[in-house]
């Protein structure tokens, strides 16, 4: 850890250049020749990234940042706060500590938190940052987390793991066994040290693939921020043997939309209908969950088609996603398209439709934007249709 980065003049320079182009700064002469210029530039770039993602860190003096990539890969404060809401008890050990964002929030709920990090320098940086943040109930250990588990030799209320893909796994199907640590391989050992495990994975992991590798999965949490899925959380309890529940949450500035269903109860129970007055498009977390029939059942909505994942109703309903009023729907053919859409401006979405948004825009000369929303999809009779809508929420 380079403590010279904490020099007041260097810190003032870093703060004065937040948001400045790094490529332009790199061409300047280093005003602090005793400190590596690249390290200073990295602090500027990483702290700029932290401004919106990690405002508590950004607002605290003398924080040392890891690489920009580490900041991009770490949890945001919003997702870390959600994870912390899932745990309770006296003790938690994080086997893949990283920059320590999750542990900062775990420490607000758990009396004693242990941060394990295999990278010695990063471990020292995190320890320093926790001191600046005035967090006193987190202990940092450097080295292999399996060794740390052996050495500490105690029962934990929770084990938390954020496995990372091995470099030699690129191009392969994303499986937990391709990550470090190898959770499926070590699961029995982990359960000797705890009754409850929380695993964070990237949204890329297929839910069915994850379930095939793990045991005792009580709940899978699909976490989205502003309609972008950020992570999957696998809540595992040693004593659990029932059906897995799926919980989705989409966190926005004003609210959090949640949706939950039991995985094995998801079946082909949707009712189909031609478009009615209102159209509903589930948020990205629900789309990732695959709970499309559960959406239809819970909100009493009809689907347009088994594979379209768009819903309709006569009366408007509160819904975890976008809601539109259908102004018109028409068959997708040359005559109708020329009459209504050529040379117009519209927001375009495709669902269960053979053409891409880009090809539709090019073919019918439709500009992006405006207040008109066009859904190109397939109805219950397998006809290609276009829904022309206005957005309600």
From TrEMBL:
InterPro entries named in the record: PG_1098_Fer, SAM-dependent_MTases_sf, Thump-like
Domain annotation THUMP-like: ranges: 321-391
GO molecular function: methyltransferase activity
Sorted UniProt keywords: Methyltransferase, Transferase
Pfam families: PG_1098_Fer (PF22013), Thump_like (PF18096)
Top-rank lineage group of the source organism: Bacteria
SUPFAM superfamilies in alphabetical order: S-adenosyl-L-methionine-dependent methyltransferases
Biological process according to GO: methylation
Domain PG-1098 ferredoxin-like, first and last residues per copy: 278-320
Stored Gene3D superfamilies: Methyltransferase PG1098, N-terminal domain (1.10.10.1110), Vaccinia Virus protein VP39 (3.40.50.150)
Protein name per UniProt: Class I SAM-dependent methyltransferase
Record organism: Flavobacterium petrolei
The organism's taxonomic lineage, starting at the top: Bacteria, Pseudomonadati, Bacteroidota, Flavobacteriia, Flavobacteriales
